[in-house]
Amino acid sequence: MEKKILIVNANYYKAISSGLLENAKKVLSKKSNIKIINVPGVFEIPVTISKYLKKFDAFIALGCVIKGQTPHFEFISSASINAIMKLSMVSKKPIGNGIITCMNMSQAKARKVKGSEAAKAVMSVLSQK
Questions:
Q1: What is the CATH number of domain 3-127?
Q2: Which of 37, 67, 82, 118 is deepest in the core (most CB within 10 A)?
Q3: DSSP-derived secondary structure for 58-111
Q4: Ranges of each domain in the chain
């Protein structure tokens, strides 16, 4: 049976998010019906997923947060990831976490493979009986 998967892609860092997205799409089953929604940043991912909880079987959250000079990095990262986990638990639907948190741009570029890891995790949970 074809599974409906929503990818919510935070494209604040377009060069990074496009790599995360391409790596995720390579993994997803040809039997999956995939929709992609772009949002400005990772903070907008949980609310976007919550709007579509009843319409999709699974979700993949993609984005990047890079540490700056203020604690903003910690607040955004924690709030977004905690909200995604809560949505997954309440809805009992898998949400692959492809949000990378990095100290600098070179770390972010090296971690674009995390999109495929999030997609693999979702496909694994969906295949469980």
A1: 3.40.50.960
A2: 118
A3: EEEEEEEEE--SSTHHHHHHHHHHHHHHHHHHHHT--EEEEEEEESSHHHHHHT
A4: 3-127
